[in-house]
Design a protein that fits this description.
By secondary structure, this protein is of the alpha+beta class. 29% of the residues lie in helices and 20% in strands. The strands form five sheets. The protein has an eight-stranded mixed β-sheet, sandwiched between helices. The protein has a five-stranded mixed β-barrel with strand order 1-2-3-5-4. Helix 13 (426-438) packs across helix 15 (489-506). The chain is globular and about 90 Å long. It binds one RNA strand of 77 nucleotides through strand 1, strand 2, strand 3 and helix 5.
Length: 688
RNA sequence: GGGGGUGUAGCUCAGUUGGUUAGAGCGCCAGCCUGUCACGUUGGAGGCCGCGGGUUCGAGUCCCGUCACCCUCGCCA
């Protein structure tokens, strides 16, 4: 546990570092490769025209393999471009649309790409050719071959062209500083139309974004948008950093099955029927949890996998039914070992992606501290508004609501919102009250601290006896607002957390580019199951209790803490892990507590119990939510923006129409009869 | 399952108190234009106002139902 001072220092250090975010700059592609390419792929021999590709093929406007002019040889002698750039070249192109610069003026080039825009000035035609690397202006002048001119005139948005030409300097005054390639243009000799395009539903280059439904239905078009390409590239970079990090630390990547067995705990499973055994079903993994533990028992020591996981639960802005975890497990470790390895990854990712220097170790808060100070187990630590406990004062007051909460073993807690008393109207405060009620509170007490430290508000007169101590406890000064909730501990947590989160965003109490990383540790082992009234695992049933809490397992399960740790980034759970139980006796005890009978435990987890009895090393691990990492590091608000082909809130794919009906024959083969008749019309073909 | 929002031209949106022929920008089609880069300019085409029902002399507008998408609560070990 860290002192508040340490935490605050960390926050400041991180947030005041340069937020330079190279993938979000206005000229991102220019900088992307800067680290891996030392020079700007200058032609050998100074500015001399290069000896290849062979000059002058007849212009052609239609594509067929037979008529396609030959491109540059695969491994030309005298290759003028460095190794790295050459890999992006191909038989069809010498360069991408993002890499030509004034020092290549005079070079003969082939570019391939999509028509972003055509500006036809009759005498001279400009075509912006776009690919994932950037945009290059292609010029077709009045002296171009007739076929080339015709092709340029015919070209429309999103056609795919191959252009042959010479890199030319732009006439004075016509350079475009907004474009990485804006210093040059390609003077076009021939155009090959590789594919025409029907008028697109929307323009990938347009500034106004179509609605999500249109984007998802035409996802291939949406993915052509530079912003989406940036997101996919960011994701790729983050995953590569992860893979490199664990590879360098000696981790082994092992794949685990997608077709597994349904387990009683946890989320709803996605099921796959068995053809060979009617009535039996596979379940898609909610996570590779058991497999990775068994890999430890098999002696693999340090395991890592980029694992697809499936949970059939309702969706949110940051939740998809299929998502990706970086799954990690280690043997002969304690929590600090796992935490250390992940902190190294956090530091590395922040540096390589954002250019931020994250001081280690990261701050750690216990679960209890989190709930007391922030009301939530994944608090946003980019801003203050900490919760203050007022229960003892409230018990001394004459206010019935406060006394009532105290007498029924509840709590009275509040937050101080600095310097908003004048700004917040009665209507604003009604809205905040509604927010608190929505979160389960019976009401919200608001008090404005006026000049001289006098409280104002509907119930201020009930609190005169404790007015001064209340003000001192909250630290309120004139102009501040106090929001107080009296209820059970859980309800005060939820209501005040919701208010805190909302006010933090509304009042812009933090820099939206700031990043704050922290650990939350010492979670309770169990929580009361609201439905059955029994105990449920807070994390999962394989979590080890703290060694000191072992006896509590039987005497006082509620007080028993787990060796669990969550990585929290900006108020979002970015990863979670535990040290696992590695002996069958403890495991069986926990199963029993969770209401899993010995028979059911044998039936469902027999293999685990057997393995735990046959040489299981102490082990533990963590899983990081890759989709969330990409969202957080990219400053994105929707998980659908970091997944190439995401699902809607009803878990359907608007592009393919999945899920869809199947042939009766298929159902018969699987021994399945459907209760409700399937929808008559497939979604993908609807409206056409 | 509950609460909220949205749905009008290919796209983004406006549409008054219920009123006669539903608009704009972009895109599309055609013409003009040799330095643009969100090119400019002239003209044109394009509408099941999500769908179904109701109220009304009259509905894009009001009411009921329904569908889709989004946000959210429950749910997500």
């Amino acid at each position: 546990m860290k002192s508040p001072n340490t935490r605050a220092t960390n926050t400041r250090t991180i947030t005041t570092s340069s937020p330079a975010c190279c993938f979000r700059n206005s000229a991102p592609r220019a900088t992307r490769w800067a680290s891996s390419s030392n020079s700007n792929s200058a032609p050998t021999g100074g500015g001399r025209p290069t000896p290849w590709p062979p000059p002058a093929w007849p212009a052609s406007v239609s594509f067929s393999p037979a008529t396609l002019p030959p491109g540059p040889p695969d491994q030309p002698a005298n290759h003028p471009y460095e190794e790295h750039e050459r890999r992006k070249a191909s038989v069809l192109r010498t360069h991408t649309c993002g890499e030509l610069r004034p020092d290549q003026i005079g070079a003969e080039v082939f570019l391939c790409g999509w028509v972003d825009r055509v500006r036809d000035h009759k005498g001279v035609i400009f075509i912006d050719l776009r690919d994932r690397w950037g945009r290059t202006q292609v010029v077709v002048g009045p002296d171009a071959a007739a076929e080339t001119l015709a092709a340029a005139r015919a070209a429309r948005a999103e056609w795919v062209l191959r252009v042959q030409g010479t890199v030319g300097a732009r006439p004075e005054g016509t350079t475009n500083p907004k474009l990485a390639t804006g210093g040059i243009e390609v003077v076009c000799r021939t155009i090959t139309v590789l594919n025409e395009a029907e008028t697109p539903v929307f323009q990938p280059g347009s500034t106004d974004l179509p609605g999500e439904e249109v984007r998802l239905t035409n996802r291939w078009l949406d993915l052509r948008r530079p912003a989406m390409q940036e997101n996919m590239f960011l994701r790729s970079r983050i995953v590569k950093i992860m893979r490199d990090h664990f590879d360098e630390l000696g981790f082994i990547d092992v794949e685990t099955p997608m077709l597994g067995r349904s387990t009683p705990e946890g989320a709803r499973d996605y099921l796959v029927p068995s053809r060979l055994e009617h009535g039996s079903f596979f379940a898609l993994p909610q996570s590779p949890q058991l497999y990775k533990q068994l890999l430890m028992m098999a002696g693999f020591d340090r395991y890592v996998q980029v694992a697809k996981c499936f949970r059939d639960e309702d969706l949110r802005a940051d939740r998809q039914p299929e998502f990706t975890q970086l799954d990690v497990e280690m043997s002969f470790v304690e929590a600090d070992d796992v935490i250390g390895v992940i902190e190294g990854l956090v530091r590395r990712t922040a540096r390589e992606i954002l250019g931020l220097d994250v001081p280690l170790p990261l701050p750690r808060l216990t679960w209890d501290e989190c709930m007391e100070r922030f009301g939530h187990d994944a608090p946003d630590l980019r801003f203050g508004l900490e919760i203050v406990d007022l229960t003892d004062l409230a018990g001394e007051s004459d206010f019935r609501v406060f006394r009532g909460a105290v007498e029924s073993a509840g709590r009275v807690r509040g937050i101080r919102v600095p310097a908003v008393a004048e700004r917040f109207s009665r209507k604003d405060l009604d809205t905040l009250t509604a927010v608190a009620v929505e979160a389960g509170a019976k009401g919200l007490v608001w008090l404005k601290c006026e000049s001289g430290g006098v409280w104002a508000g509907p119930v201020a007169k009930n609190l005169t006896s404790i007015a001064d101590t209340l003000r001192a406890r909250l630290g309120c000064e004139p102009g501040d607002l106090a929001l107080i909730v009296a209820d059970s501990f859980e309800v005060t947590c939820k209501a005040l957390h919701t208010l805190r989160k909302r006010l933090g965003a509304e009042l812009a109490l933090y820099d939206p580019k700031a990043m704050h990383f922290s650990w939350v540790v010492d979670f309770p082992m169990f929580a009361r199951d609201t439905e059955s009234g029994g105990w449920a695992s807070m994390h999962h049933p394989f979590t080890a209790p703290r060694p000191a809490d072992l006896e509590l397992l039987e005497s006082d399960p509620a007080a028993c803490r787990a060796v669990a740790y969550d990585l929290v980034i900006n108020g979002s759970e970015a990863g979670g892990g535990t040290i696992r139980i590695h002996d069958s006796a403890t495991q069986e005890k926990v199963f029993k507590l969770l209401g899993i009978s010995t028979e059911m435990a044998r039936e469902r987890f027999g293999f685990l119990l057997d393995a735990l009895r046959s040489g299981a090393p102490p082990h533990g691990g963590i899983a990081l939510g890759i989709d969330r990492w990409v969202m957080l590091f990219g400053g994105l608000e929707s998980i659908r923006d970091v997944i190439a082909f995401p699902k809607t809130q009803k878990a359907s794919d608007l592009m393919t129409g999945a899920p869809g009906p199947v042939e009766t024959k298929q159902l018969v083969e699987l021994g399945i009869r459907v209760l409700a008749p399937p929808k008559p019309v497939g979604r993908a073909s609807e409206g056409d």
